[in-house]
Amino acid sequence: MTTSSPFIPVIPAGGSGTRLWPLSRKSHPKFLLDLAGSGRSLLVDTLERLTPLSSATPIIVTGRAHREAVADQVGDSARILAEPSGKNSMPAIAWAAALAEREHPGAIIGSFAADHVITPKEDFWKGVYSAIAAAELGYLATIGIEPTSPSSAFGYIEAYSSDAADEEAIALRSAGALSVSRFVEKPDRETAAEFVKSGRFMWNAGMFVVKARVLLEALDDLHPAMSDAARVLAEDVTNGELSAEGEELWEHLEPIAIDHALAEPLASRGAVCVVPASFDWDDVGDFGALSRMASSDDDAEMGVHVVGSAPVLSEASRARVYSDSSRPIALVGLNGVSIVDTGDVLLVVEDAKAQEVASLVKRLESAGFGSLA
Amino acid sequence: MTTSSPFIPVIPAGGSGTRLWPLSRKSHPKFLLDLAGSGRSLLVDTLERLTPLSSATPIIVTGRAHREAVADQVGDSARILAEPSGKNSMPAIAWAAALAEREHPGAIIGSFAADHVITPKEDFWKGVYSAIAAAELGYLATIGIEPTSPSSAFGYIEAYSSDAADEEAIALRSAGALSVSRFVEKPDRETAAEFVKSGRFMWNAGMFVVKARVLLEALDDLHPAMSDAARVLAEDVTNGELSAEGEELWEHLEPIAIDHALAEPLASRGAVCVVPASFDWDDVGDFGALSRMASSDDDAEMGVHVVGSAPVLSEASRARVYSDSSRPIALVGLNGVSIVDTGDVLLVVEDAKAQEVASLVKRLESAGFGSLA
Fold this sequence. Notes:
The structure is a homodimer. Chain A is α/β, with parallel strands linked by helices.
């Protein structure tokens, strides 16, 4: 690496991922699962992908309820900050940024979701290097994913290549980054199709690389209570836990995503850039996404992919089975169906309708099955 | 009833119905299941449908392995003959016919499958009365089902209306029966379509009504060893079981269906007639058939039909669930899928491919799951 600033990865690990229920539960969120079939959880994969780039121990920010499970998975390879409650991504990242700046002045942080699948990591690293180079210039740098379909499940980033001849514009171009004109939240399919057709849009994978100081100063301007609190919390934290006073402060923070709190307003000021990604990325949002991953792995249209130890017998099936029980599963016909056989519930889902698992999970409580959520 | 001959129903209850596995098993065949959702098994439904027509206790012929289960279901309302081994339908019916003739000389027997669904029973009775009237004339009378689709899953009966002016032809017509020119085994779909279009064909539901003496004398001619043995076995049987000698005799019988042994050769002699049925009939051959029954019951295109006690939550699903466990089942999407959740195996089957369950069951043994068959 040619950067002179220390680079510290930050991994906000929150949200249970209801669309992957019942694999993911409130008590056992998506990032703790081995969904890529790598033998490691998505969180551990994420951490291992980032560790070679790190100048100091990466920081994971997670809910207090998951602290132990996360610690069991990552051991000493990450530092864990335990959130007293879920406050969306901005408070978590601001807290980590303040800690990084306090311990490593001039640090660049890179925030990456704990539950995405990325291959190959060498290409990911290239993207991060470019983003770090752009962050050195003072930008909030993001990494944008080349859209492969007009998906309405992702947010979009509109980019443009500045042809300005000033030194900064030249430096940005030489870092391999484009300027960002705006972020767009999940559009409808028609709008998404126009975006993709235009060639100017990338998927927003929620990857942000920025100098900790730049981030905190931007918050000083936009959300001063947030940056003030983050600096206090960075002093307050002991062994990843906040004191009673720190907790009180945390509870008063505005729950907001970094996209709305920082990325969107900074983009309108021309302070955000995007590095086009050259790696494969999937947010593994639902069982449909898992099936697509599996079929590209197998390079097979038909067949049954089994995650777990259950014996499966099938006739002309294209399906994906998740089961750790030894109870045999028989499949006949079926084209694009996922089956999740757990001890306390069975889910059968049509991959094309996999997003609707979230609606079902919402109804669990009122249907008297809150304990399954 | 206007007939003067005693009428004795015979119910051959054999075959496990592999296309309904794992609801049906070798040890727990289809006829023992409550597939119509009536609260009674198909066998008990069949028996109750026939009892009001009976002049004497109906006879059930079943495998020795199922004798106890059958007795538990039917109690004193039927007489059970236990076959030492499966020999297809002709030996079973011949044995029952010989017993009926021995105890009720001049009896007419009516043989009906143990595992079909028929409604309404009043219309069924009308069909049987007509068949009995035809059997009085010396015919082997069958009841034919008006085809509602060019199914290749059923055999067909070709009928013609004789315009002969002789007394017998007039009597046959007045009984509401047509002459049968031939039986055709399951045709391909194209041939089936021609059959249906011609208007001359009916589905063969395996219902045969005939004087016991006529049946035995036809066998004397066509399969003399069979009728000889049947008469001996009718004397041999005690409490439904054969002696060692009887068993020895049974084991040497030719395993053959009544269709091939009697119906086809007698049709070519002009000795078979058919009564067109005015009732709804389903052989409940596979999960697809069960789903069709369910959807006509519910009169609903969408929705989940649950057989058993499992709680089911669904989002936009058209499915059928069979489970006696209390484990909840969640369904998302799916259009025409059946789920069978048993203690030792889970089956998920696309209704349109339901016939292929039989292929899977054939592979159970070689796949190391013979105990599930």
